[in-house]
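quick one before i forget lol
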Amino acid sequence: MSQPAYPFPISIIAALDRRRAIGCEGKLLFWLPNDLKRFKALTTGHTVLMGRKTFESLPKGALPNRRNIVLSARPDAAFPGAETYRSLEEALSHCHPGEQVYVIGGASLYRQALPLATELCLTEIDAEAPRADTYFPPVDPGVWTEKSRDARPSDEKHPCSYAFVDYVRR
């Protein structure tokens, strides 16, 4: 499958459990401080693209030191500190060559963006959340190859082991 060419990289960033679960009732499944630090380190200074529900789940609204883009089908929708577009294609048409775009959720945006992405920055959590209602799409090994894996054990701040895994398109 050939990938549409954009003059900038599109990365997907997500934390998922063993079943690919990513959320429940608009909240993260696990509180992993190192995952949050990695998210901030990767996305700061870049563009974050998200759906309306993901934006509304952010505790302090728009993420600082990043260009925030929110997708919403509502033409009158306004999200303080963010640009709003009606579709992924429209949002991407407003991005610039050399810009780094991170798709940060939710599930339907992940599904739409997966065929366009050049990289996946996943935190694979070695556990199953007791409750989940939102899932990450399957990662096809025929399309994606693992570039790096940084496994971390559980500790006093991290209730389960996890790995930062980056994939690139074959």
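fyi The longest helix spans residues 33-43.
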